[in-house]
Amino acid sequence: MSASDSSSEKTRFELLDPDVRLMLAVRDGDAAAFEKLVEKHQGRLVTVLEHLVGNRSRAEELAQDVFLRVYRARERYVPKAKFSTWLYTITHNVASNAVRKKSTRKEVNLVSSPSGSMPVRPLDTMAKDKSALIPTRMAAQKEMADLIAKSIDSLGPRQKMAMLLNKVEGMSYNEIAETMELTPQAVKSLLSRARMNLREKLAPYMNTGNLPTGVATELDD
Amino acid sequence: MDDETQEQDFQILEELTAYLDGELSQEEVDRIERRLGEDPDYRAEMKSLQATWDVLDALPATEPGNSFTKTTMEIIVGDAVKRSQKKASSLRYLPRAAVLILIPVILFGFAFNRIRQNQTLPDRQLIQNLTTIKYHNQYTQLGNQDLDFLIQLIDSQLFDLDPIFENEIAESDPPQIPSELNQRRDYIESLDIEEKLELQDNLALFEALNERERKARIQFDQKIQNHAQKNELLSVMKAYSDWLFRYSNENKNQSEVLEFLQFLNDASSNQEKVAAIKKLKDDQASRKFLTDSKSLSGAYGQWLPSGNDAERVFQWYEDLVEDHSQEIRDLFPVAIRKYEKRVGKSPASQIRLNMMVRRKPIPVMFAFLLAKNRGEMLELFLNDAEVELFLPILSSESQRQFASMSLDRQKNVLMDWIEAANKSKLEASFDRLSSLESSLTKSERDRLTSLSTEEYRKRLMLLYRGRYNTKDPVEEIDEILEEWGESSNRLGFRPRRFNN
Description:
The structure holds two protein chains of two kinds.
Chain A: H1 8-16, H2 18-27, H3 31-53, H4 56-72, H5 83-105, H6 135-153, H7 157-167, H8 173-180, H9 184-208, H10 213-220
Chain B: H1 3-20, H2 26-38, H3 40-56, H4 68-90, H5 95-111, H6 123-128, H7 130-134, H8 136-142, H9 147-156, H10 181-190, H11 193-207, H12 211-225, H13 230-250, H14 254-266, H15 270-294, H16 308-323, H17 325-343, H18 347-359, H19 361-372, H20 374-381, H21 384-390, H22 396-403, H23 407-423, H24 430-438, H25 442-449, H26 453-468, H27 474-484, H28 487-491
Helix pairs in contact in B: 1-3, 2-3, 4-5, 5-8, 5-13, 5-14, 8-13, 9-13, 9-15, 14-15, 15-16, 15-23, 16-23, 17-19, 18-19, 24-26, 26-27
């Protein structure tokens, strides 16, 4: 009996999630299907990792590591959840290990561009938006990006992960719970705390009008 | 703030967060919305939390660089190669299966999607180890680098001439790579872009090997390059590699493929390996022949050749046709004249016959002769001596069955087999083409004959496929049908053509 027809649960995921079907094709030897999965998920995966490790080139390396692990595990793949849940379970492990190793080595948290040539905050890519071509707007967006990035950085690793899965990947509490091996109630608490902490960081600017000009414009928009 | 208040505040925070995230039941949503309508502080708390989350919407999705996918896939290919080769060196089980399944599938899966850029190839490694890199995939397919295995493959003649897979006929003249290093750069420059890209891919895979593996590859390559039978070794290696690649890629039954690869891997000697390959090739040939022959119209004799017999029968047919090719050429125009005299000359059939003769001489002419002059062909091909010579090529069981028939019956069965074997070489059945053509109206036929020969052939074949096959370009057929109006129903096209 093949893994794909062993239960109605699996059939449900196969039916509902096109990525599960792609991954099953990968399991059956279709390498082009894997390339499609990489293309589809790389953007969000690198975004999540970039905020988790604070470094773009490191995030890309880790994303490649995640995809490599997924590929290595293809033969054992059994669809028990949405593909993204499985992908981010692996991502969670890879990122946790990376953060742990990093803190053990007591590295300085330098944020750099992929080329390593200049320090850049991950969110400065906002400046590449077409609407960001006006210099003052660009500067404001840069400030905004820095502000958000700092606020996110201030969250604990689990809050940060839960927040990113919710915000970037659009996962439900149950999916986040499965990904992070927590209960849905624990996810609810994590996200509430994350929201509270972020509000604390952003509130001085939002409530007192001390928000940098550009940021205020963004919020007004 | 006391603990109780703190606890209450956090409960509010949690429920509002869940509310904003759409994680509550309808009942809870109703309760919260009632309170939001009544309690301004509660509403302000919700708005503040919402605003915080909304700020994060400014998070842009990161777009990795253009090369991210390509680099990722290269890492995965490199890893797959390393892992399979590591297994090969440490385990007797799985290595070949892993190498054979992974490499062709991965490389071909990605080959078409790769960003193709003409890049300058890294010089030193490539120039120094050009031959090793050039034959990288073939060496990988071989698994353990074993010259004796290649020599036995040459001796087996299994890859000299393969009547079923014509593409794998060994190259008699493999490309000559200069042995002088200073000439190699010019050689590389002279290659076309596809060849350069292939070298580039091979180089990446070669560099993914560890140092010990690279060294072993280089040594094996040197043995081949300096061998007296170098060309034969390279030819047989290519033919074997192509055959294995096609087998592992085209066979839908992957467990059968793995079983075969496992068998090869477990074989205790090269003789055993070669015997397994021969058996598989025999099976492939007979399957093809049997599949083709089953669709032969008319009687097919009392029993079908099976197993190894099928390949032998097929080979016998090939030899027979080759021996009689001149007679076929001589007889064909005579047969056509007779045919035209009987049925009346039509410009379309004249063109068709001329065109077919130019394109597929022997099998097409032979098919025509078999269809129109079977008796004469039987006399020509199957004299008593020939039948007697045929018998020993069969297995003893088949010989016993065959010998139990009368000579006439034997000859008729053999003619059926000849027809089946010949048909397996044809793109279209002559009878079906004739039937299709005769169902055309005069104006349709005139329309066809007004076209160039190539265009005529193309259209006729499209119509043919539209009527008899299922895997052909629907749009093109539809175009013709549209142009022809009512023809489709009369010509008996499959209904699915009109569902698109």
